[in-house]
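Lecture 7 notes: from sequence to structure.

We start with a single chain of 309 residues. Read the sequence below before looking at the structure.
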Amino acid sequence: MGTPCDRWLDSAVPYHLLFPLFSSFVFVFGMLFAKQAISRGASPWTSTFLANLWLALSWSLVAIWNGEFLPVSGWWQAALVGLSFVMGQLFTYLAFQHGDVSVATPVFGVKVIIVAVILAVLTHEQIAARVWLGAVLATAGVGFIQAGAGSNRPGGMTAGKALLTIVLALLAAVSLSLFDAGLQTWGKAWGARQFLPAMFIATGILSCALLPVIDSPRKLRTLGVLRPMLIGTTLMAIQAMSMSYSLSRYGDATRINIVYALRGLWAVVIAWLFARFFGGAEAKYSPAVMLLRLTGAILLTASVVVALL
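Now the structure, written as tokens:
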């Protein structure tokens, strides 16, 4: 049980929030490596397949280690949730194919608001005022990011590409919102130890449909992107496992999602600081453009906090 002091420290210092904080940083670096590979000619289909393959293999080992497997009657639910995850991953990588990491990543934060709306519709409950306020802040944040998307410098994003990036990021957020809603509904019913491995194994199986269109290892080596592709997709799998573990082990979805939403802020700051190393377009933008993006990211992060609190 521990001493009263130990119990107070456990409640006062939520160490489990280190998992989403870790994931928020790893997500950005994973996407910077993946973006580097994609910008040199690698296909986003390849990124989707590899990231989901690592997840499927990892969770297969977890299932074998635990010795617990989802009953056959629950696999169709795991497959549907897995399909939502695959679509979310695909739209994510497509967003990074067409736009900057500092534009797409903050937009993913609206996922929390979309989940709240979906669950309210499914349970026939009224949408809370805080969710509407969060939606207003999110809309304003997207507006700032759109305003700070363009650049007159060579290699910068055009307004059209910025809009396409935001639309793809929103589609990713909707798909991953359906994933979250399904996970909260069926994952809770079956239990995380059984449902999570089955769901991620299903994502690996479903991702095999991309095999005809993914890049071969030889092509990745020819393009000189094999290393950043492997690093990027591995980091994406690691951050997803960290988030899945924290949610299934500790619950506390509200604070975990708030901390995870900080990736929108890290994306702007880290992408700007490391643009020259990763070859990102952020190095071509003026401080005014990046400050507009940072303002949008702050508003989107605030929208998550408001909607969840």
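The mean pLDDT is 80. Keep this in mind for problem set 3.
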